[in-house]
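Help! Submission page says 'invalid entity' but I think these are all valid:
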Amino acid sequence: MRASRRHVILVMIILGALAPLSLFAVSHIANAQDSFDRRAMLGSIVNNVLQPGQEAFTKASRNLGAAAEHFAQSPDEDSLAALRKAWRAAANAWQAIALFNMDLRLTSIHNQVYKPPANYEFIDKILSGDEIISEAFVDGIGSTSKGLDALEYLIFDPAKTRGDIVDLFDDERRRQFTLALAQNIERKAGEIHDYWSPDGRKYVDRFVKADQAGGVLQGTINMLANKIFNTLQTDLEMWLGEPSGIALDGEPHSELVESPFARHSHSHLAHRLIGLQNVFNGGDDEDQLGFDDYLIFLGAEFDDRPLSQVINERFAAAIDSIDAIELPLAVAISETPEDIAALYENIRQLQILLRADMKSHLSILITLSDRDGDQ
Amino acid sequence: MLARIERHLNQPVDILPLAVFRIAFGAVMFASTLRFIVNGWIDALYIQPQFHFSYLGLEWVKPLDAQGMTAVFLALLVASLFIMLGFAYRAAIAVFFILFTYVELIDQATYLNHYYFVSLVSFLLNFTPAHRYLSLDARLRPILKLRYVPFWRIFALQLQLAIVYFFAGFAKLNEDWLLQGRPLAIWLKANTSFPLIGPLFDHDWMAVLLSWSAAAYDLTIVLWLAWRRARPFAYATVIAFHLLTALLFPIGVFPYVMIASTLIFFSGGELHGALKQIGIRLPSLPRHSFRPPIQISRPAKLVLILFFALQLTLPLRHYFYPGDANWTMEGYRFAWRVMLNEKAGFATFYLVDKTAGKTQIVYGDQFLTPQQLRHMTYQPDMILQFARFLAAQHPYAGRHDLAVFAEVHVAHNGKPSKLLIDPERNLLEVSRELFSVNWILRY
C-alpha cells in the first residue's frame, strides 16, 4: 500500500513536470498547420511531368525509328534532314525525363539511351568489323557505344556537308548500325514505359509510396532532390565548366561540349533545365503540386520572400541566359564567353539555393551513413 | 569534505553493475563494428577517399591501406567480443580503446558524438576490473573473482554519462531549439509517415513540445536515474526515448549505446533482483572474492582527475570563440552538442594562378566523397584544409604564386543561406591555428 502510494506520488511529480510543457505546446495548437500530402506531390510529378515526358519520348523515339528506317532504305539529303530532325526531337524529349533514373534497373536503361560521350573508337571498330549488325546486336553492346549520343556521331558532323555525310552511308554496315541504334532507342523507350507502368512492372507505385522525405536515403523525395542537384552539378562541371575552361584552365575546349557533332548542346541544356523546373513545380504550371508547394508549406523563405519563388526566378534566369546564347555552345565559348559566364553563374546561383536552402529545409540525405546532428 | 568524498568513492559496492556494463558495452560494440564492416564503410570512409580531413595537431594520423584497415576492424570486432565475454579483458579493452580512437582520429568527416563517447568509455574501462565477475577470465582463473569494487570505479562511468547528458541538454538551451523547435521540426516533417504519431509531426507545436521534452530529458535523466525510487521509471524513459530517436533519425547505434550504458546506474541488488525475476541465477562467489577492494592508486587518481577536468572544460571552450558555435563550428566537437543542427551548404572554390593570371573553379566532388563534401561545406576548418589540398594538386604548385578563395553558402536550421567565410580571404594565407577564426563570418 505504501509502495503504491509512493508510485502515485512519483507519477504526479513527473506529470507535474510535464504539465507546463504540455500547456506550452497546446498554446501552439492554434497555429497548427494542415499536413502536406507528399504522396499527392509525387503523384503530381508522375502525372504532370513523368508520364507526359515519357509519352513524348516514346513518340519521338518511334519517329526516330521510322526516320532511320526511311534513311537506311533511301539515304539522301532529305531523309538525312528528316532523321536529324527526329534525333533532335528525341534528344530534347529525353533531356526532360533523363533524371528519373531512380534505381539500378532504370539507370541501366537510361545509360543505354544516353551516356555521353560515346566511345567513338569502338563505334568505328563495329563499322569496320564483321559482326552481323542487328537491333539484337546493339542491345548486347555496352552503353557507351549506343543510344542517342552514338547516333549523333553517325549522322552529324559540323565539318562535313550533308552530302558528305550521305556519301558515308554508301556503306551498308553504317546504314544497318544507324537503323539498329534507332530501333534500340525505341525499344528502350518501351522498356522504360513498361518499368513505370501500372500495367507493367509498376515502379510508379513504389515511387509514390516511398514518400519519406529526408529520413530515409531511398525516399523518393530524397532521391529526386539528389537527382536535381547532381544534374545541375554535372552541367556546371562537365557540360559548361570544362568546355568553357571555367572549371579547367580558363581556355575554351570546344571538343568537350555535350553535343559536339549536332551542335545541340544548349538545346540539351535548356530542355534539361526546363525538365528540372517542371519536377520542382510538379508540372509546367506553378499551380501543380511540387517541391515549390512543399517549401511553401514548410515556410521556407529567402530574403523575406518564399524560397520557392526565388528558386523559380533563378530557374527562369538560367533558362533566359541559355536563350540569350545565339551561337552553338562550341562556338559561343570562344566568341561570346560573357554569355557563357552569365549562364554559368545563373546555374551556380540556382544550385546554391537548391543545395543549401532547399536541402536544409527538406533535410535531404546524400549519403547512407550515421549522423547525430553534429553537422 | 574531501576526505568524506574520498571515503564515499572508496566504499565497497557490488561489482555486478560493472560486469553487466562490460557485457552490454561489448555486445553493442560488436554489433556496431560488424554493421560497419557489412555496410562496406571501411572502404567508403577510409580507403576510397584520396584526402582525409585531419584534426589540428594530429595530421600524422593516417589510414592504413585496405588490408591494414580491414585488419584494424577485424581486431576491433574480436576485441569487442572478448570484452563482452570477459576474455583476455585487459588486453582486449586496451586494444579496443587504441584502435577505436585511432580510427576516429583519421578523418574529421567521420566524427560522431557517440563514437567519441565510445572512445572515452573504453578509456575508462581500462581502469576498471570489469572482468572479475561474469567473465571467462574469472571462470578460467577463479582467483580473479571479486565481489566488491570501490564505488569510484562505477562512479567514473556514471559521471561520464552525466557529463554527456548534462552538456547535451545545456547545449539545447538556445533560441532555435526552445522557441522554434528546430532542427527537430525539419526532421519531424520528413517523418510524417511514422506510425500513429507521424501525422502530428507536420505541426510546429509538436516539434517544440518534443524539443522541450528532449532538453528536459537530457538535463534531468541522470538525476532520475540516480534516485533509487525513480530508477525503474527513469530507465523505462531512457529506453523509450532512445528507441524513439532510433526509429525517427538515422543516428546509428547511438541509442543502443546509451540504453546499454545507463545500466551502470543500477545497484548490484537491483540487478540481482531483476535477473532473478527473469529466471537468471548468477554464479555464487568464493569466499576469497569478498576481500576488500583495492583502493585507487595515486597515478590512477591523477589521470582520472585530469580526464574529468578536461571533460568538464572541453564542452565550454566554444565560449572562447566569437559567434555562435552552431554556426561557426568552432569548439563544436567533443562538446556533446548533439542533434542541434540541420545544415546544408554549397562551396565554390576559386583556385587562382596569379603567375599565369588564370582562375579555375573547383567544387570538391572530384576529390571528396559525398560524405566528406557534405561535412566540408559547413565546417571552416575543413574548408581551409581542402583549400590547401587543392593548391597542392595544382600542376604548378610550388612554382607559381597561387591563391585559393572560397564562396561558401550555408543554410542553418531552416534559415536562409549565408556566407560562412570571407570570400575575399586567400585561404592559403590563413594559418590553421586553434584561435585563428577572423576569416569566419557571423550569421
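Support: the input was valid. A stray whitespace character was the problem, and the output above is from the cleaned input. Chain B touches chain A through 72 residues (CB under 8 Å).
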